[in-house]
Amino acid sequence: MTAAQRIAHLRAEIERHNHAYYVLDAPTIPDAEYDKLFRELQALEAQHPELLTPDSPTQRVGGKVLDGFASVRHTVPMLSIRTETDTESSGATNFDTRVRNALGSAGDIEYACELKFDGLAVNLRYEKGVLVQAATRGDGETGEDVTQNVRTIHCVPLHLRGCAAEVLEVRGEVYMSRGDFERYNEKQRAQGLATLVNPRNGAAGSIRQLDPKLAARRPLSFFAYGLGEVHGWALPETHSGILDALARFGIPVCAERAVVRGAGALAEFHRRVAAKRDELPFDIDGVVYKVNDLKLQAALGFVSREPRWAVAHKFPAEEQLTIVRDIEVQVGRTGKLTPVAKLEPVFVGGTTVSNATLHNEGEIRRKDVHIGDTVIVRRAGDVIPEVVGVLPERRPADAKPFVMPTTCPVCGSHVVREEGEADARCTGGLFCAAQRKQAILHFAGRRAMDIEGLGDKLVDQLVDENIIHSLSDLYNRKVLNLQSLVALERMAEKSAQNIVDALEKSKSTTLNRFLFALGIRHVGESTAKDLARHFGKLDVIMQAGEDRLLAVHDVGPVVAQSIVAFFGEMHNREVVQQLRALGVHWEEHDGAMNEQLPLSGKTFVLTGTLASLARDEAKSRLEALGAKVAGSVSKKTDYVVAGEEAGSKLEKARELNIPVWDEQQLLERLKECE
Ligand code: IVH
Is 213 one of the annotated active-site residues of the chain? Predict the structure, then answer.
């Protein structure tokens, strides 16, 4: 084999693996093998520089820094499409009606439905199957030559498979997946470097990067959605047929598409995609409908440079620009201080947003948010709105930096931020009105004590007017009663009575609800259930040490410590005692800890060092299965587990003829039982 042949062979192999990895998401060989092929190709090309061509996969790393981009005149203009932002179905019906009127058609039209990718439009020009040029859309007539940068996008094939058309221009969107965006930002943050604001800016910025080596570091992807100039290739009859063909040529085409008939089906596609928008691995800003039949497309033609046969049906934007009027600090149930941006109200993600979380001090520093800044707010799905980034060029001269208060804005207690913790906390505990309010709201919540009608407005009044100081005051009728409730603003006697009734009703509860309602840090609903099931009685839980708590399914050291610390506080024990004295009750049982578990009644002794398990972990896993773990070997010992360098305990076990397991046997047994 000549060097030229070997080079051709290696390039074809590497491209085949690239396609499997980046387009099909189904790797064909291990990374190390791929690297070997790649290095062999690099070495051969270094020995034979005359054989090095720009379409070699080794050239994806990015070449020389450019002074600027050359202009590219599009032989077929890159048009944009009309946008419908109307409510769900009317966008689809409007489009369908226009199409049918223009065609004079009464029947259902066939449409190709696609996603509207949120990135940057590019034109890829293949000549005889080789990528020769990539250009941005520009003004539609003339774009910029970004070939070098586009070559660094691994999923863009440098050669088409089975297509040697004279000219084939593929149009589509360059984008950055959410996962790649997160990973890239994570890496940048770790090195103290600038992060990207959102995936779209990431994609657009990278493609227009003059240093292709920098572009190569940004993980980009591509989806095709149409064609430009074509010579020497017989077009399929439909748009969906074109995309199918492009996929066969090795070009990435999004699988999330459909061919449907009629307006109802268009609206259905819109609904279906909207419902899974947040789960997609990349950002979209809507869907696109296209008349599928190319003959009908030709018959429909264009109006004012927009095709009559396609429309973008947008979703509500998830990001908008607005101004930060102020930054306030909110105090949560556990004392966590959250800086919140007070915004110039803006319509985003389907609602008007005037507050957005800034998470914590570190986030504000990283994003460099000042009061007065113009920022990008994001509200995606049901997630609380957040500030994703600042437009530094719009910062006014009088913008003010944020300073985290050293005392709690609500109660004046000291604010602490422990080492290694991102969050600052108010040390006021239930002395802090904000924490008290949140604690009461949590206590009253539907999944906790389920006290109907005790919402935030009422809790604000009860705490602000000093009627309620602790959770137990809710059930103390000397404090909270019909009179004291009616005396509150906007409280009619009927509503007051309802509240009293709801409070009475809530007294009869379950142990898991009560535990959850107490708001012990790290004890969520499911941990509360596990604790209640395992122990059955509140007193037992209150007295349990960390060891016994660790035997509970899914309770780790952090949770166990938090429970011990909570019940270690005198005032917490008092509140519990008062609540019970005031009539809060539930059924207790003996607990599941004595239930027949797989290892109930068996006593284990652990000795030596275990290679893969920490001693504590082995212990708590055995205990969770009902076993007892003892410190020394005796006649009562059922099994000894011996790790490396086991000493006298192992000897004793042998003496007493007690079965000895090695670590492997222990792990197998645990796996069987768990
Ligand atoms: S079709 C002549 N299909 O949206 C029709 N465009 O104005 C050309 N876009 O910037 C466009 N996803 O980059 C089409 N599936 C899709 C698309 C899509 C995103 C972008 C396109 C352009 C804008 C359309």
Answer: no
